[in-house]
Each structure stands twice: as C-alpha cells, then as structure tokens.
Design goal:
This protein has a six-stranded mixed beta sheet. Strands 8-7-9-6-10 form a five-stranded mixed beta sheet. The radius of gyration is 20 Å and the shape is elongated. It has 224 residues and is an alpha/beta fold. The mean pLDDT is 95. The structure holds phosphoribosyl ATP and magnesium ion. The site of phosphoribosyl ATP has 22 residues, from helix 1, helix 3, strand 9 and helix 7. InterPro entries: ATP_PRibTrfase_cat, ATP_PRibTrfase_CS, ATP_PRibTrfase_HisG, ATP_PRibTrfase_HisG_short. It catalyses: 1-(5-phospho-beta-D-ribosyl)-ATP + diphosphate = 5-phospho-alpha-D-ribose 1-diphosphate + ATP. It is found in: Cytoplasm.
C-alpha cells in the first residue's frame, strides 16, 4: 500500500470528474477521512493521493467514470444517474445515492413553441440531445415520433438556431433555459450522483471496500 509511481498501487482507487461532482463529493469524502493532497483545479495531475495512503482518486471525464469502474481500473466511482441510465451501468453495483449534483432531465422548447399542439398533430419532432437513449425511450413511451439529433454540448442552442424543435437536457437552477428564452415542458427523471462499485471487486474485496462505502454512506446521512 504505497503511492509511489514505481510500485503498483494496491489500495482503493476512486474515479470521479472535475467540476461540480468533485466539489460536492469532497465534503462527503472528508467525512470518511479521505482528503485529496492535491487540488485538481490547480494541478495537471490526474492521479491524486489522499490523506489515506490506501485511497487514491483518479480524475476522468464524467461520462468515462462507468468505464473505469466497469473495467476495474477504478474500484469505486462517482457518476451522475443521467450517465448511468444513458450508458446502462452494466456490471456496476450502486450502493449509495450521494444526493449531490442534483438536477432534472427535462424536455425544453423555445418559449411560445406549441409543444402539446405539435405532439397532438402527430408532427415529427426534431429533438437535440446528448442523451440519445433516454430521449428515444421517453418519446417511444409517449408514442411520439422523433428525429434525434445527437449533440455533445450546448444543447440550448439547437432550438434557437432552428436545428431542433426541442432538446432533452439537464436543468438545475433553470437559469440557462431562461437566459436562452427556452422553457421546460416535461420532466423525464430526477437526477443525482451515485457511488458505483465494480461488481466483481465488490464480491472479491468486499471487506476492503465496504468500510469506505459505509463511511461515505454515513457522510451522506450526516450531511443531508
Ligand atoms: O463537462 P464535460 O463534457 O467534461 O462532462 P459533463 O458535462 O458530463 O460534466 P459536468 O461536470 O458538467 O456534469 C457532471 C454531472 O453533473 C452530470 O452528469 C449530472 O449528473 C450533474 N449535473 C447536475 C449537471 C447539472 N446539474 C447541470 N445543470 N450537469 C450539467 N448541467 C448543465 C446542463 O447540461 C445545462 O447546460 O448545466 C446547465 C443547466 O444548469 P442551470 O443551473 O442553468 O439550470
Ligand atoms: Mg459539462
């Protein structure tokens, strides 16, 4: 159990993304006695040692967290339910709702666009989103025909430029929708971040992982 680069790391590796998830996970980790020794915002380091020599953090893209944990490159991870639902979350055990980075997955349109009318007429709706699977499932369940337009960011721009009639995106404060003259018309899912564990690692190394998982779960209980 050491963190030098010459010896393989034998402790617990936790994958998480920079930004809001990192910021909101830190207090929960601190309650579990895990404090990063390096600030990922001011350092280029992607592997962060912590106050616990047997625990390290790896910084990855939010949508890459499930891959790291599924393939065992990380034992634990923090991932948004949006990412887990969109990707399927296969092989992942999800023991703790961390109740952080909360938001809603919603359908939004330009203010004044007659969404219900368009659906009622059976119009084929052009929907821009990075959540292709979740959007497809949502509209299929409603029996609405859609042309899905896959985007990787700035979904809010699509209705404003005529690229799409509607978007499926995350909304938290609603400020981004308001600033772009959009309005939410449907709620698809309540989202928060989940602690995810590699299913095989959980079976093999449960006595090593469980104390960390339980400490984080306890942190959530004390925080919310
Ligand atoms: O940025 P990057 O491309 O690396 O990846 P990412 O965008 O997936 O990462 P990040 O850090 O932006 O988001 C990580 C996770 O945070 C998401 O997977 C969600 O589970 C969660 N989360 C919570 C959010 C939001 N709230 C949120 N509001 N993720 C994104 N947003 C965006 C939203 O897409 C929209 O553009 O913020 C904007 C709306 O915010 P409001 O406050 O104006 O409504
Ligand atoms: Mg982002």
């Amino acid at each position: 159990m050491n963190q030098s680069s010459t010896t393989p790391f034998t402790g617990i590796t936790l994958a998480l993304s920079k930004g809001r998830i990192f910021g909101e996970t830190l207090p929960l980790l601190a309650r579990a006695g895990i404090v990063p020794l390096v600030d990922p915002d001011s350092s280029r380091q992607l592997i962060l040692p912590t106050s616990r020599p047997d625990v390290r953090l790896v910084i990855v893209r939010a949508s890459d967290v499930p891959t790291y944990v599924q393939r065992g490159a990380a034992d634990l991870g923090v991932a948004g339910l949006d990412v887990l639902l969109e990707q399927g979350g296969e092989g992942l055990y999800q023991p703790v709702d961390l109740r952080i980075a909360r938001c809603r997955l919603m359908v939004a349109v330009s203010q004044g666009f007659d969404y219900e009318g368009a659906i009622g007429r059976g119009a084929r709706l052009r929907v821009a989103t990075k959540y292709a699977k979740l959007a497809r499932e949502h509209f299929a369940a409603k029996g609405v025909h859609v042309d899905l337009i896959k985007l990787y960011g700035s979904m809010e721009l699509a209705p404003l430029t005529g690229l799409a009639d509607a978007i499926v995106d995350l909304v938290s404060s609603g400020n981004t929708l308001r600033a772009n003259a959009l309005e939410a018309v449907e709620n698809i899912a309540e989202i928060s971040s989940r602690l995810v564990v590699n299913g095989a690692a959980w079976k093999l190394y449960r006595e090593r992982l469980a104390p960390v998982v339980e400490a984080i779960a306890q942190g959530v209980k004390e925080t919310f």
